[in-house]
Give the backbone structure.
Amino acid sequence: MRIGITGHMHLTAATVDLVRSALLAELERFDPAALTGVSCLAEGADAIFAQAVLDTGGRLEAILPARDYRDTRAGPGHRPVLDSLTARAASVNYIAETSSVQAYAAANDAMLASIDLLFAVWDGVPSPKPGGTADAVAAARARGVPTQVIWPEGAQRG
Protein backbone atom coordinates (compact mmCIF):
# COMPACT_ATOMS: atom_id res chain seq x y z
CA MET A 1 0.00 0.00 0.00
CA ARG A 2 1.38 3.38 -1.05
CA ILE A 3 0.02 6.27 1.00
CA GLY A 4 0.74 9.92 0.32
CA ILE A 5 0.24 12.98 2.48
CA THR A 6 -0.95 16.52 2.11
CA GLY A 7 -1.72 18.84 4.96
CA HIS A 8 -1.29 22.07 6.78
CA MET A 9 2.18 23.26 7.68
CA HIS A 10 1.39 25.51 10.61
CA LEU A 11 -0.19 23.56 13.45
CA THR A 12 -0.39 24.34 17.14
CA ALA A 13 1.79 22.23 19.45
CA ALA A 14 -1.29 20.44 20.79
CA THR A 15 -2.46 19.77 17.23
CA VAL A 16 0.88 18.21 16.31
CA ASP A 17 0.29 15.61 19.05
CA LEU A 18 -3.33 15.04 17.96
CA VAL A 19 -2.33 14.61 14.31
CA ARG A 20 0.57 12.30 15.17
CA SER A 21 -1.75 10.07 17.21
CA ALA A 22 -4.41 10.04 14.48
CA LEU A 23 -1.88 9.20 11.77
CA LEU A 24 -0.33 6.41 13.84
CA ALA A 25 -3.79 4.93 14.46
CA GLU A 26 -4.57 4.99 10.73
CA LEU A 27 -1.19 3.54 9.73
CA GLU A 28 -1.56 0.66 12.19
CA ARG A 29 -4.32 -0.71 9.93
CA PHE A 30 -1.66 -1.62 7.34
CA ASP A 31 1.02 -4.30 7.27
CA PRO A 32 4.28 -2.37 7.85
CA ALA A 33 6.13 -4.72 5.52
CA ALA A 34 3.82 -3.65 2.68
CA LEU A 35 3.52 0.03 3.62
CA THR A 36 5.24 2.83 1.74
CA GLY A 37 4.66 6.43 2.75
CA VAL A 38 5.28 9.09 0.12
CA SER A 39 5.93 12.61 1.37
CA CYS A 40 7.36 15.93 0.21
CA LEU A 41 8.63 16.34 3.81
CA ALA A 42 7.35 19.88 4.28
CA GLU A 43 7.09 21.19 7.81
CA GLY A 44 3.88 20.19 9.58
CA ALA A 45 1.67 17.37 8.35
CA ASP A 46 4.12 16.02 5.76
CA ALA A 47 6.95 15.59 8.27
CA ILE A 48 4.65 14.24 11.00
CA PHE A 49 3.34 11.63 8.56
CA ALA A 50 6.84 10.67 7.39
CA GLN A 51 8.00 10.10 10.96
CA ALA A 52 4.85 8.10 11.73
CA VAL A 53 5.47 5.85 8.71
CA LEU A 54 9.00 5.16 9.94
CA ASP A 55 7.78 4.65 13.52
CA THR A 56 5.33 1.97 12.37
CA GLY A 57 8.05 0.13 10.42
CA GLY A 58 6.98 1.29 6.97
CA ARG A 59 9.17 2.47 4.12
CA LEU A 60 9.51 6.20 3.37
CA GLU A 61 9.93 7.72 -0.09
CA ALA A 62 10.66 11.43 -0.25
CA ILE A 63 9.78 13.61 -3.22
CA LEU A 64 11.36 17.02 -2.77
CA PRO A 65 10.55 19.96 -5.02
CA ALA A 66 14.18 20.89 -5.66
CA ARG A 67 17.76 20.19 -4.70
CA ASP A 68 18.02 23.61 -3.05
CA TYR A 69 14.81 23.13 -1.01
CA ARG A 70 16.58 22.48 2.29
CA ASP A 71 18.87 25.49 2.11
CA THR A 72 16.50 28.01 0.51
CA ARG A 73 12.99 27.10 1.64
CA ALA A 74 13.11 24.96 4.79
CA GLY A 75 13.20 27.07 7.93
CA PRO A 76 16.13 26.67 10.32
CA GLY A 77 13.92 24.85 12.84
CA HIS A 78 12.75 22.34 10.23
CA ARG A 79 16.18 21.56 8.75
CA PRO A 80 17.20 19.00 11.43
CA VAL A 81 13.86 17.20 10.95
CA LEU A 82 14.28 17.29 7.17
CA ASP A 83 17.85 16.00 7.44
CA SER A 84 16.79 13.13 9.70
CA LEU A 85 13.90 12.12 7.46
CA THR A 86 15.89 12.26 4.22
CA ALA A 87 18.67 10.21 5.84
CA ARG A 88 16.14 7.52 6.81
CA ALA A 89 14.17 7.57 3.54
CA ALA A 90 14.52 4.57 1.25
CA SER A 91 14.66 7.01 -1.68
CA VAL A 92 14.85 10.76 -2.17
CA ASN A 93 13.78 12.17 -5.53
CA TYR A 94 14.26 15.80 -6.54
CA ILE A 95 11.90 17.32 -9.09
CA ALA A 96 14.01 20.34 -10.07
CA GLU A 97 17.34 21.98 -9.39
CA THR A 98 15.86 25.16 -7.91
CA SER A 99 12.73 25.79 -5.88
CA SER A 100 9.77 27.44 -7.57
CA VAL A 101 5.99 27.34 -7.53
CA GLN A 102 6.22 24.99 -10.52
CA ALA A 103 8.61 22.66 -8.69
CA TYR A 104 6.23 22.45 -5.71
CA ALA A 105 3.29 21.69 -8.01
CA ALA A 106 5.32 19.06 -9.88
CA ALA A 107 6.40 17.40 -6.60
CA ASN A 108 2.79 17.23 -5.46
CA ASP A 109 1.76 15.84 -8.86
CA ALA A 110 4.50 13.17 -8.71
CA MET A 111 3.34 12.17 -5.23
CA LEU A 112 -0.29 11.90 -6.33
CA ALA A 113 0.67 9.85 -9.39
CA SER A 114 2.49 7.27 -7.26
CA ILE A 115 0.01 6.48 -4.47
CA ASP A 116 -3.01 4.29 -3.74
CA LEU A 117 -4.42 6.47 -0.94
CA LEU A 118 -4.00 10.07 0.20
CA PHE A 119 -4.15 11.18 3.82
CA ALA A 120 -5.15 14.85 4.05
CA VAL A 121 -4.51 16.63 7.34
CA TRP A 122 -7.02 19.29 6.46
CA ASP A 123 -9.51 21.46 8.30
CA GLY A 124 -11.81 21.61 5.26
CA VAL A 125 -11.17 25.29 4.55
CA PRO A 126 -10.39 26.28 0.93
CA SER A 127 -6.79 27.20 0.15
CA PRO A 128 -6.15 30.96 0.42
CA LYS A 129 -3.58 30.73 -2.38
CA PRO A 130 -2.88 28.20 -5.17
CA GLY A 131 -1.17 24.99 -4.16
CA GLY A 132 -2.62 24.63 -0.68
CA THR A 133 -4.02 21.55 0.99
CA ALA A 134 -7.52 22.04 -0.44
CA ASP A 135 -6.07 22.16 -3.95
CA ALA A 136 -4.12 18.93 -3.34
CA VAL A 137 -7.29 17.23 -2.10
CA ALA A 138 -9.21 18.44 -5.17
CA ALA A 139 -6.44 17.20 -7.47
CA ALA A 140 -6.40 13.78 -5.80
CA ARG A 141 -10.16 13.44 -6.05
CA ALA A 142 -10.08 14.52 -9.71
CA ARG A 143 -7.56 11.72 -10.38
CA GLY A 144 -9.70 9.22 -8.52
CA VAL A 145 -7.20 8.80 -5.69
CA PRO A 146 -9.09 7.76 -2.54
CA THR A 147 -8.65 10.50 0.03
CA GLN A 148 -9.02 10.25 3.78
CA VAL A 149 -9.33 13.55 5.64
CA ILE A 150 -7.72 13.54 9.07
CA TRP A 151 -8.55 16.47 11.30
CA PRO A 152 -8.87 15.34 14.92
CA GLU A 153 -11.34 17.04 17.22
CA GLY A 154 -9.66 19.99 18.88
CA ALA A 155 -7.09 20.43 16.08
CA GLN A 156 -6.14 23.98 15.14
CA ARG A 157 -3.85 25.68 12.73
CA GLY A 158 -0.97 27.58 14.30
